[in-house]
Amino acid sequence: MAEWVYLLHPPRENFIATLSESEREVFGRHAQYQAELLEAGTLLLSGPTFGPENTGICVFTADDEAAARAVMEADPAVSSGVMRGDLRLMGVLRGR
């Protein structure tokens, strides 16, 4: 099992502050998807970055790149086309 990260790149600056109603609906489904990944033990951490560029970050585990890509592409933020997903293999350093 490897750690992966996908970055969610927004379509414009100040994205969180300027969400349309349809984008809010997508992000409701995105939040539910993230909660399901967390419950399944797949998701390690996720959240947005703040400032003008609201890039989202999702760190999770998957067996291989195909499985990781499937996780990213199933995220409603990506599958809807609202945000662009950027998948990368990641090394996670764990403390304690």
What does this 3D model show about the protein?
The chain is of the alpha+beta class. The chain has a single domain, classed as Alpha-Beta Plaits (2-Layer Sandwich), CATH 3.30.70. 35% of the residues lie in helices and 29% in strands. It is built from three helices and four strands. It has a four-stranded antiparallel β-sheet with strand order 2-3-1-4. It starts with a strand and ends in a 6-residue tail after the last strand. The model has no long low-confidence stretch (mean pLDDT 94).
In short:
The protein has 96 residues and is α+β, with helices and mostly antiparallel strands. The protein has helices at 21-40, 65-74, 76-79; strands spanning 2-9, 43-48, 56-62, 84-90.
Shape: globular
Estimate nothing, just give the exact number of structural domains.
1
Mean pLDDT: 94
Helix count?
Answer: 3
Percent in strands: 25-35%
Helix content percent band: 25-40%
Quick one: CATH superfamily? Dimeric alpha+beta barrel
Broad CATH class: Alpha Beta
Low-confidence stretches: none
CATH fold field value: Alpha-Beta Plaits
* Main sheet characteristics: 4 strands, antiparallel
Note the gap between the termini.
Answer: 20 Å
Q: Could you say what the CATH architecture is?
A: 2-Layer Sandwich
Domain YCII-related: 7-83
InterPro entries: Dimeric_a/b-barrel (IPR011008), YCII (IPR005545)
Protein name: YCII-related domain-containing protein
Family: Belongs to the YciI family.
